[in-house]
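Quick entry, no commentary yet.
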Amino acid sequence: MCDMTSFKVRLSYKQEATLGVIKSAGNMIEIRKTDESMSGTPKITESAEVVSDAQPTGQLIVGLDVGGGINAELAPTVSQHDFIEAGMRSKWGGAIVIVPAVIVIDTAAKTLTGTLTTFVTDGFAVGDMVALSNFANAVNNVVVQITAVTETVITYAGASTMVDETGGGDEVVTRPDYLDWGNRFGGEIDSGLQTLTIDNTAKTITRDSGSFVTDGFAIGDQPLLSGFVTSKNNTSIILTNVTALVLTYDAGSVLVDETGTGSEKVVLPANTNFSFTLAKDFLDLTDKSLTYAGERVGSFKLDFKYGSIASVAFTMMGTGYEVPATPFTTGKTISAVATEPALNASSDLGLVIVDGQQTNYCIEGINLDINNNMLPIECMGAIAPKDQQATGLSVNVGMDVFLQDANFDFHAKKLAQTPVAISYYVRDSSGRGYAVQVPAVQLSFSDAAGAGKRQLSKLSLSGVAKKDGTLNRTIRIYKLV
């Protein structure tokens, strides 16, 4: 009789306060996936020693590769938000939400004109992608891209299906939270010198005046504490709740009760280099699990193709690996796998804008590959890597289009290496999803050719993004909610 063969594999994660340090306390989130290849794989060298009986003398572990891939259907879930954030080496932020007294859509002029608005003062800028909502005509509740802006007028590139409309006063214009690669939104957050009181039983840090909320701290942040007399308290924590006067931190952080002297402060560094602990549980076996620590997102891919569900693929690199006697997840609360519907590449992909104009030709697929070109830092004295280092951003963009008059000029742009701006969004029926903006892509692809009998000619565009000098970024990803 054979034992049960495992097929129920759960992968869950928690954010680390310190790279590679596995904290026993704290809850976890299950990762939505189609498949995964996480592994701790030893680097093996066979002994070259020659012995008199001519028998092999064995092999030694001289290194350890920790990481792998996590593939999933793209959906607006917490885990995918977290991993995209980590892969972009940034932090979600920057949302602007306004409700103008009246807003008028003029589709001929491609303008949104507001009454009592201050679009520029509020922070809207050329290149921003903004979501419109609460319009009476459902076709106007879409995402558009700003091509010009004054205090009262936004000029946009948007869907040709939009119609003229004068709003009733409850319409909303939103620039969603976004990620610019390598930049933590808003830069460093610093509470300034405060008198801080730590209550480790309640897991709280309390200030006398000012506001953590106004400073910009948020749930999930990993700020650093400094200035405490007790050195153990000068460490990083994970925030689980934020109010004006009180920060609540994760149960896995063990500090010491202390009343400060006015020399303490809380600082969230500008470039947050996220890392995670992952647990792989084999649920149909008895207490069998694997743990991966210090996992960072080295690269990720977004793929949209007609006839398919949109997909995302993350490549992870880590610093630690364990086969625990008791699963790491034992006794923890694990947030159930997300149930949001996956995004449909055929029907959920909305507006595609190329060089500031809505495309009017047929697009069969779009893909995006963001690579941090991360390398392991391997030092003598330990088998596993000590750390990883991102050595620079690479962004590759692909787009398959049916050859038409409207896109034939891609050949000339390829020859001149003229940068092409590409923006698009994908969202479900409730408006949740992502928008992507790559403002400067230099193309390289094979010319259109005769496709053969009963075949249509297509262009398989591919290109490499560079930093746009006007917008001062290479790629931006918005979170539509």
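second:
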Amino acid sequence: MSAQSEFVTVPFAAGERISVAHDGRLPLDVILLRHGEQVSAFLDDCPDERKPLEPVLNSRGEVVCTVHGASFDCNGCLVRPGGAHHPENCIAGLVPVPVETADADAVTLAITPEVRKEAERIQLQRRRRRYGRGLRGLVRRLSAWMRGEQ
């Protein structure tokens, strides 16, 4: 890990979303998975529409996105695309967060500069989807509203 990595210990909760406070910044939403002895952590972000996964674990230990049904294995790789709205986005898989140490009760995550940068990029994409792209998005929404299109 780089010298700029921050190490954060969080309670272990398989398949649950955990908000990880780090470095005084907005918390990262992370999903933890255990497959045998292996513990994996991923940013809570479905690559299909840049929304939180609202994860559910299926009988095979895969994370299933409840928004559109895509399944991801314990390595974050896409297993089944489900009814993806944008399947070209969904081939990327989940964004990993490095796990330094793990035991039955706690996991130590390495919040690297790369993870921080990816989380910031995801947040920006979510805001753009929600609010449009600046002034152009506002003008388009206002024009549609004036024409009676919602």
